[in-house]
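Hi R.,

Here's the input for the zinc ion complex you asked about:
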Amino acid sequence: MTLFRRFRQVGRYGPVRVGTATDNRGREKHTAACTAPRCGFSAEYDTRSAAELAARTHRCSAV
Ligand SMILES: [Zn+2]
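And here is the predicted structure with zinc ion in place:
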């Protein structure tokens, strides 16, 4: 899972993981990414709560 190496505070909501990372300009980015092999959902948000909401409400088409 090299994709998640830089992430802190990784949480799980069903198949979706949410992680906080700092980009190369020092800003925090919050990413929600689905771990289901055929789903491919992933998105970035400005706030942690937005990413967690997206993770919780994600309807996985691959399960
Ligand atoms: Zn999914």
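One thing worth noting: The longest helix spans residues 48-57.

Cheers,
M.
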